[in-house]
Amino acid sequence: MLCVTIGCRTIPELVSEQRRLMAEGAQLCEFRLDYLDQPIDLEELFAKRPGPAVFTFRRPEDGGRQQVDEDYRRRLLVDVMESGAEYVDLEADAAAAIPRVGSARRIVSLHDFTGTPQDLPAVHARLAAHDADLVKIAARANCTHDVTRMLRLVRTASLPTVGLCMGELGTPSRLLAGRAGAPFTYACAASGQPLAPGQLTFNEMSELYRYDQIGPQTELYGVIGDPIGHSRSPLVHNTAFAALGLDKVYVPFRVPPDDLPVFLDDAEELGLCGLSVTIPHKQAVLSVITDADQAVREIGAANTLVWLDGRVYAYNTDQAAAIDSLVAVLDSDRIRTAPLSGVRALVLGAGGAAKAIVHGLHQAGAQVLISSRTHARAERLAADLGGQVVDWDRRHDEQVFVLVNCTPLGMSPHVAATPYDGSRLRPGMIVFDTVYNPEHTMLIEEARRHGCTTVTGVEMFVRQAALQFRLFTGLEPPLELMRSTLRSDDL
Questions:
Q1: What are the backbone dihedrals phi and psi of residue 87, each rounded to the nearest 5 degrees, phi first?
Q2: SS (H, E, C) 164-221
Q3: 435 half-sphere exposure, CB direction, 13 A CA radius
Q4: What is the mean pLDDT of the segment spanning 364-392?
Q5: Tens digit of pLDDT for each residue in 211-262?
Q6: HSE on the CB side for 250, CA within 13 Å?
Q7: Does an H or E element contain 476, and which?
Q8: Model pLDDT for residues 350-368, shown as the tens digit of each residue
């Protein structure tokens, strides 16, 4: 179940917001009494509220909005319980001082905005000792392993427990809380209105991730990267899972480079079945794999991991997706023969995506040039896979038929950036930008103005995601749905 946190200045606003959320399917709301103007008319609130709620009044040190006299705060919470609240949330010291009254279920909680306590079971026991019906621990995640520890606590606790990690690193704990056995987790009412760090919106939780359908048997997939907030992989894969009625969920994991080894060690405990892999992990993940397909072995980078029967299989779907995207825009005569044989292609960048595309172009018989802002990386890529290195400052001097951007230049939010001077583009060129957010990058717009044929990152993204979907599920992906979903997401 989702509990939607509401913070409003007045009781009519709070009641109106709960009524709106209940109309959209919310079953439980949290009333943040510290957001209401003082004094609070509980008689009006209980008379007008349309549904059940968790009542809490946070102090500033616990993330609250205002400081009031502590005796007043505690008396108010007692009055809340006596008025018929379904749940009341109390910090340990308040719970120790406030006796059980009424029928309200007591949530005894801890909020730590600095980090996740090392001994979570001991903290849990201390909270549970204060006549708790439920325990809640909300703590900032400072590493990805904090999420694993928190979900382990929820799964093994003897008392119903809401355990979540705050901040972007902690997002998976919010999404997987119910899968671990938590009675509910928290969401915010609307975008731009989180009342705790890292809260997702009710609509995201209920519609995109289908939170209330996630159970202990739900198969877990996800994407790892750093950063990860821009990724549209959860949107595309979760939409496809829902369309086919699959009991699977796809979650974003922000994994800083130093956290990668521990995160992959935690994969079995988390119950991961498959992962998409993005910047900067496409090469580093190779240290944990058991088996790799030919493309991964030759490229030295993977964008897909699958756990099966105790083994970890690595794949690279970028290569096939990129070449298929290019071939799709070629004229029919060329497609019937050797589509890219002899074509001069300039690849900008030397990271994981560039490796896959350089390898694919070579396999197709193209003449490949590589240019990177870090010259040494271009040289290493050319040494590994072949190709001619071009100095970044000389990249415009080459006459090429295909230009491929594999750098992040132009990616949101830096949408004004471009890796190539538009005035140097020529009619008839094929310009392929692997950036998909936004789809119409500055490079793509300039290419269209200069009469070039363009391939956007959306096409490659959808094709590689479709190949991943097949690897994850063994089923044919709903390709057109995945494409239209991505394009309708305000890219």
A1: -135, 145
A2: EEECHHHHHHHHHHHHHCCCCEEEECCCCCCCCCCCCEHHHHHHHCCHHHCCCCCEEE
A3: 28
A4: 95
A5: 999 999 999 999 999 989 888 999 999 999 999 999 999 999 999 999 999 9
A6: 25
A7: none
A8: 988 899 999 999 999 999 9
Per-residue buried b or exposed e for 418-452, using 16+ beta carbons within 10 Å of the residue's own CB:
bbbebeebeeebbbbbbbbbbbbbbbbbbbeebeb
Q: Where are the beta strands (DSSP E) in 241-326?
A: 248-254, 272-277, 291-292, 304-308, 311-315
- Residue 192 has a pLDDT of 64
The CA distance from 379 to 350, in Å, is: 9
CA–CA dist 181, 361 (Å, integer): 48
Cα–Cα distance, 74 to 33 (Å, whole number): 12
CA distances from 369 to 204, 265, 467 (A): 42, 38, 27
Which residues are identified as catalytic?
A: 111, 136, 282, 318
- Which pLDDT value is given to residue 338? 62
Residue 388 host element (H or E): strand 388-389
C-beta separation of 249 from 207 below 8 A: no
The DSSP bridge partners found for residue 371 are 348
Instruction: Please compute the mean of the pLDDT values over residues 59-64 and round it to a whole number.
Output: 93
Q: At what angle do helices 352-363 and 318-327 cross, to 10 degrees?
A: 60
Bridge partners (DSSP) of residue 430 are: 402, 453
Q: What is the pLDDT of residues 121-134, one digit of tens each?
A: 999 999 999 999 99
Cα torsion through 227, 322, 435, 346, rounded to 10 = 110
How many CB atoms are located within 10 Å of the residue 93 CB? 11
Residue 336's pLDDT band (boundaries 50, 70, 90)?
A: very low
The model's pTM = 0.90
